[in-house]
TrEMBL record, chain A:
The chain crosses the membrane at residues 6-26, 33-55, 75-94, 162-182, 202-224, 264-286, 293-316, 322-352, 373-395, 415-442, 463-487, 507-535, 637-655. One of its GO terms (cellular component) is plasma membrane. The lineage of its organism: Bacteria, Pseudomonadati, Thermodesulfobacteriota, Desulfobacteria, Desulfobacterales. One of its GO terms (biological process) is ATP synthesis coupled electron transport. InterPro entries: ComplexI-like_HydComp, NADH_UbQ_OxRdtase, ND/Mrp_TM. One of its GO terms (molecular function) is oxidoreductase activity. Pfam families: Proton_antipo_M. Keywords: Cell membrane, Membrane, Oxidoreductase, Transmembrane, Transmembrane helix. It is a multi-pass membrane protein. This is Hydrogenase. It is found in: Cell membrane; Membrane. Residues 131-407 form the NADH:quinone oxidoreductase/Mrp antiporter transmembrane domain.
From TrEMBL, chain B:
GO terms for cellular component: plasma membrane. InterPro entries: ComplexI_Subunit1, NADH_UbQ_OxRdtase_su1/FPO. It comes from Desulfobacter hydrogenophilus. Keywords: Membrane, Transmembrane, Transmembrane helix. This is Hydrogenase. It is found in: Membrane. The chain crosses the membrane at residues 61-84, 96-115, 130-150, 170-188, 244-264, 276-295. The lineage of its organism: Bacteria, Pseudomonadati, Thermodesulfobacteriota, Desulfobacteria, Desulfobacterales.
Amino acid sequence: MFFFTAAMIILLTGSLLLPFSGRGHLANIAGPLFALTGAVLALAAGVDAICTGGFDFISPWNYQLGGFHLKLDPLSGYFTMVIAMVCGLSALYGRDYLKPYANEKHLGVSWSMFLLLFASMLLVITAWNGVLFLVAWEIMSLSSFFLVIFESHRPGVLAAGWTYLVATHLGTAFLMVMFLLLGQNHSYDFNVIQASGPMATFLFVLAVVGFGTKAGFLPFHVWLPEAHPAAPSHVSAVMSAAMIKTGIYGILRISILMGPFQASWGWILIIVGALTGIFGVLSALSQQDLKRLLAYSSVENIGIIAIGLGLGFLGFATQHPVIGLLGIAGGMLHVLNHALFKSLLFFGAGAVRHATHTLEMEKMGGLMKGMPITGTTFVIGAAAICALPPLNGFISEFLIYFGSFSSLYGSKGTFSVLAAVTVIIALALIGGLALACFTKAAGIVFSGEPRTREAAKAKESGVFMPISMGILVALCVYIGLFSPQVIGFLGPVFDTTVAGHPLGDASLAPAVVSLTMVSRVGAGLIALIVFLGLVKRRWMQHKIVEKSTTWGCGYATPTAKIQYTASSFADPIVSMFDTTLYPVKNLKTDPGLFPTAFSYESRSKDIFMHHVYRPLFSVIKSAALGLHWLQRGYNQLYVLYIVLTLLALLFWILWI
Amino acid sequence: MRFTIFFHVIAAFILSPMIPGIINKVKAFFAGRKGKPVLQMYYDLAKLVQKGAVYSRTTTWIFQISPLVTAAVGIIGVMLVPLGNTPGLLAFSGDYILLVYLFGVSRFFTVLAALDTGSPFEGMGASREVQFALLAEPALLLGLCALSALSGETSMNTMVISLQAGTRPVLACAIFIVLLAENARIPFDDPTTHLELTMVHEVMILDHSGPDLALIEYGSALKLWAYGSLTASLIVPQGILSPWASLGAGFVALLFVTVTVGVIESIMARLRLIRIPQLLVGATILSLISLILIIR
C-alpha cells in the first residue's frame, strides 16, 4: 500500500508541476527524475504484491456507481512490475532522446503526459471497479495520444494520432457495453460483477474486441503500425512494451472474474492469436521502416501471448490442468519477455534515428562500427525476440510448446490434439518468420557497408541511452539463464490467475526440471563459445591475419550499392505470401534505345487498413453526410433536439 | 548403458567429418570415378587450421563469432540427439524443442555474418536460407509432434525407443527431407558449388577462411551427424537388448542414411528454387499425415 500510494503521489505531483517547469532543460531533468522515482516505488509495490499479497483499498466515500476501489493482487503486481520497469528505463532513455528537442518543443508538457500515462496505467491495473477502470483507461488513451503527436510538425504524425484516437475509442465502446452487461444492481465493483453460460462467451468476445484493440489483435491492430513509428522512441517503447499489455491484463482479469475458463474462450484466443502472430510477423518482414517493423512485431508477440493464454484456458476448461498451467505460465512470462526485448529494440531504433535522422532501413547499413553498443544490444534483442536460447524469449515459447506437446501424450481427446497442432504449427511458422524478420532488421541496419553518408557518420549519443539498453540486455540474459528461479518467483501470479480451478496434483515442476536443463545447456553454449573463442585467439596469435575487401568472386571494387537491401532480402518470402501482404510493386523503366534511369519500388500495405477499414469508414462518412440536414447552425434547433430527447427519455422511463 | 551414451558423443566428435566423405565416395561410385578419399575432410580441416585468415574490412565482431557459434551448436547438438536406442547425453523432456531452436541460433549468426560482409552474393544466400528454414521448421516440429503423440513420450530418446513400426517410414521420410534441407544437400542446395544458381548455404561462408572456415565445416559435419542420428533412430529396429548391439545397429543405420544421401545426390539434380518451398510443404504434409494416422 505504502509503495503504491507513494508512487502514485510522486507521478501525479510531477504531472501537475511539470507543465510549469518551462520548455527546456529543467523539464528534461525533473521529468525523468519523477518518473524514475515513481518507477522504483511502483516496482517495489509490484514485487511486494507478488511476495506478500498486496492490498485491497475501499475508500470511505461512495459515488453513484460504486466506490473508489483499488486492489493490488499478485496478478496486478506482476503487470505493475512490467509497467514500472519499462517506464523507468524509458524515462532514463528519454532524457537523452529528448535533449535535441529542448528548444523547439515544450518538454514540460511532454513529460507531464508521460507521467500521467504511467500513473493511469498503474490505475488501470489496480482499479477494482468498472467505472473507475474505464476512467483510468480513458486517461491512459488520451495521455498516450498526446505523446504520439509530440512531433506534430512531421508529415503523417497527426494522421497516425487520429487513427489511434479513433481505434482506441471504438475499442472503449465495446468495453463500456461489456461492463454495463457485467454490472449487477447498479454496482460495477469487480467483487459483484458476474456472468455465466452463453452470456459469458458473448461478454468474452466483447472483451477480446475491446481489449484486443488496445493489445493489437487482428484485425484491430491497424493503429499500432501507424502510432508507434510516429511517437518518440521512448514513448513507442512504453506503448509497445507496456501499454498494449493492459489489453492482455484486461482480458485476463475479466476472464478470471467471469471464470471458470471456458473451452470456447480458449479456442477464440488460440485462433485469434495464431492469425495475429502469423500476420503480424509477415507484415513486419515486409516493412522498410524500422519502427514500423517493430510495431508489427509487437502484433506478432501479442499473438504469441494470446496463443499461450488460449492454450491455458482450453487446458483448464477440458480438465487438463497441467496444459492449462503451462499455457498460462508461457503466455504470462511472454508479457514480461516481450516488454524487455521490445523496449530494447525500440531504444535501439531510437538511437539509430538519433544518429542517422531516418528510420528507412534502405538508408542505413554498417552502423555497427560507429554505434557498437547500440548494434550489439540490438543484435542480442533480435536474438531474444526470435526465441533463441539461451535468451528469455525462448523460455516463454518453450513453456507454450511444452504445454502443447503435453496435450499430445496419451489420449486426451482429438480436440486438444487439434489445438496442440494448431499451436505448434503457428509457433513454428512464427519462429521461422521472426528469424527472417530480425536477421533482416539487424543485418541491414548494422551490418555491411553504409548506404548513405549519414549512416557512415553515425555515432552513439548520450550516456543514459546505452545504459538503459545495457540493463535490458542483462535482464534478457538473466531470465534466459535463471528461468527456474523466475518461474518460482512468479508462482503466486500464476496461482492468482488460476485460483478457483481444480489443479489436482498438476504443477509446473516437470517444466521447471526441463527449464533447469535448458538453462544449463544455455550456459554451456555460452561457455563453449567463449572457450572456442579463447582457443582460437591463442591459436591465431602467430598466424598471419590480413585485412582486405570483401571477396566479391573476383570483383575487386565492391560498392554499397550492390549490397542486398531490406526489400531484396525479404522479397522471396514476401512474394510467397503475396496474397496476404499485398506488395505493391512499381517498376519504372526508360523505354528509349539507351535506357538510363530505372526505378523500382515495392511497398506492402496493410490489407485490413486498405481493404476493410478505409472502405468501411468511407461508407460511414457518406451515410453521415446524408444526415447533414439535421445540423443547421441554429441554436434554437439544438435546444429543440435536447428537449425532444429529454421528453423521449421521460416517456421511456414512465413506460417501463 | 551410460558408457554407450558417451561412446556415441565421442564417436560423433571424431567420426562426423567422415560423413561427407562417405557421401562423396557414393557419388563418385555412381559417376564411375575413384573419388576423393573418405578422410578428405580431415585433411581439409587440418590444412585450414594451419592457415592464417583474411578478414574483410567491412566485417565486425558478428563475422568473428559466427564460426564459433556454428561449432558450439554442433557440439551441443550431437550431445542432445539419440542414436537408435542409445539416448542422448543431455536428454530431458522437451529436448527436441531446444534442439530445433539451437540450430536456429547458428542460423541466426550465419545469416548475420553473411550480411556483415556486405557482399551481394552472401546477401542472396542469406535471404534464401531464411526462406527455406521458415518452411523446414514447421515440418521438423510437426514430425517431432507426431513422434511424441505416437510414443506418448516427452524426450527424443524415449520417443524413438517406444515407437511402433507402422508410421516409422512416413516419419523417417519427413525428417529425412528436413535433413536434406537443413544441411544444404541436393535437391535443396548443391554443397559442392557456390555458383549463383545454388547460392544458399555455401555462399554464406564465402568470406570465411582458415580456422574460421574449419570451425564452420566441422560444425556443419556435426549438424549432419545430429540430423542423421535422428533419422537413423527411426529406422533402427527395436528390441535389441544389448546396449552395444543397439549402438552398433545405430551406426549401421546412420551409415545407411549417409549412403542414401549420397545416392540421392547422384541420381537427382538440384530443384529449381521456386520448387523448393513445395517440397518442404510436402514434408510438412507428410508429418501431418503421420499425425493424422496416429490420432485417428
